[in-house]
Amino acid sequence: MHPNLLGADLSILYFFNSFLSSPFLDLLMPLLTFGGTQVFWVILCLILYLLGGEDEKEAAFIALTALVMGFFLSESLKMVIARPRPYEVIGWVRHTTVAGGYSMPSGHTVAAFAGFISLYFKFGSPWLFIILASLVGTSRIYLGLHYPSDVLAGAVLGVLCAFTALKIEERVKCFGLCRFDRLQQH
């Protein structure tokens, strides 16, 4: 990594992880980070699919597709990049929890952006969903589990997965409609 980028990474990490630390944020940030877990997204997608209408079912399909892609891509990248987590190599990093695996990209951030951007496609309110996903990423920095560049990479990967999943959903939907139209013509 370029020295200037590493310096910016460390400065931002210090700001969120040490300078902003407070008992209130120590309680809030673990709650926010839950929005980036696969468990959260599987439960939310099941609820949307089982209890929702057509838009909710489509949103659940897009989100689950994006999450699966994001999981496999982020885990593959982690193995290739093999970047240790900040708390493992920097003495001043506070952390309230220990995470396994490597740091780059942030899997929680991938999941948050993949999921929340998928919801935006069907429900609108882009700023609400971007803010929610960004809060998950910020929580990962605050908790000392990721560098800011890990979170940025996770956000980009999550958005790309969401857009790819939207295209997949459009193709699946079109295929289903095209087949239905052909069946009615006979």
From TrEMBL:
<feature type="transmembrane region" description="Helical">
    <location>
        <begin position="59"/>
        <end position="81"/>
    </location>
</feature>
<feature type="domain" description="Phosphatidic acid phosphatase type 2/haloperoxidase">
    <location>
        <begin position="59"/>
        <end position="166"/>
    </location>
</feature>
<dbReference type="InterPro" id="IPR036938">
    <property type="entry name" value="PAP2/HPO_sf"/>
</dbReference>
<keyword id="KW-1133">Transmembrane helix</keyword>
<keyword id="KW-0472">Membrane</keyword>
<feature type="transmembrane region" description="Helical">
    <location>
        <begin position="27"/>
        <end position="52"/>
    </location>
</feature>
<dbReference type="Pfam" id="PF01569">
    <property type="entry name" value="PAP2"/>
</dbReference>
<keyword id="KW-0812">Transmembrane</keyword>
<dbReference type="InterPro" id="IPR000326">
    <property type="entry name" value="PAP2/HPO"/>
</dbReference>
<feature type="transmembrane region" description="Helical">
    <location>
        <begin position="151"/>
        <end position="168"/>
    </location>
</feature>
<dbReference type="GO" id="GO:0042392">
    <property type="term" value="F:sphingosine-1-phosphate phosphatase activity"/>
</dbReference>
<protein>
    <submittedName>
        <fullName>Undecaprenyl-diphosphatase</fullName>
    </submittedName>
</protein>
